[in-house]
User: What shape does this take?
Amino acid sequence: MELAEFATRLDEELRHDAYAELDASANGLQIGPDEGELEHVAFAVDGVAETFERAIDAGADALVTHHGISWGGFDRVTGRKYDRIAPLIENDLALYVSHLPLDGHQDHGNAAGVADVLELENRSPFGELGPEYIGQRGTALESYTLESLCDRLESELDTGGREVRGLEFGPEEISEIAIVTGSGTDWLGEAVDAGVDALVTGEGKQKVYHEAQEAGVHVVLAGHYATETFGVRSLQELVEDWGLETTSLDVPTGL
Assistant: This one.
C-alpha cells in the first residue's frame, strides 16, 4: 500500500480534520516521504527513541502512535530532538500519529476500549472539547463497588505493576461511569453535571481530590499509559484487515 493512501485512509477514519483546531498534536503523518510503499506497520502508544528502535528492528516501514513528536511544530531540529528524529530518516521509518481523535473515537478510541473492559452499555460521547468529544460514558451491566471497579481495571489494563487508585467520594453502588483517558480530571465538572457515579481516567491533579469530595463523585486513576493502549490496538486490527503485516510494541511506563 502507498504511504499516502495509508495516511489518507486513517485520517478519514479518525476524523482528523474535525480536531485540527482543537489538538496541539500534529495529527496524521508527522515524518515520512511524499512517496513510499508500506508492507509492515508497527504500533505503540508513544513515539520515542525506544519504540523507534524496536520498530526499526522489526523491519517496519511505518510506526503508528498515540503520542507523537510534534506539538505545535518545530522551531529547530537540534540536540535531543535531532537525535530522536534521525533514526526515522536514516531508516526510512514513517511516523503516523493520532492524539485526541484517537482518545474520543467512539469505536476505535481509548475511552471506548476502557468501556469495553468495564462492559458498559447505553454508551454516548463524553468529554466535550469544543464541538467534539474525547471520551465516552455508559451504564454498567452490573453495579460495581469502587473496589471491584479498581480491581477490574487493574486486572485488565497494562499498568506496569502500578496499583489502580480510587478516590472514594461517590455512592456505594457504581452504575453510571464516564471515561476520559490519559489526563482527564479537567472533565470532572462535566461528570458531575452528567450525574455519573464515577469518572475513570489515567492520572490525577492535586485539586481533583477536593473537587471530587465536594461533588460526591468517585475518581479512578488507572494510569495514563494503561488507559491509552486501546486505540493503537484497535487501529492495528483495522490495518491488518487492509492486508498489511503488523507488530505491536508495548512499552509500559507505570505512569
About this structure: The chain has two domains: 3-99+229-247, 103-224. Residues 3-99+229-247 form a domain with the Udp-n-acetylmuramoylalanyl-d-glutamate--2,6- Diaminopimelate Ligase; Chain: A, domain 1 fold (CATH 3.40.1390.30). The longest strand covers residues 132-144.
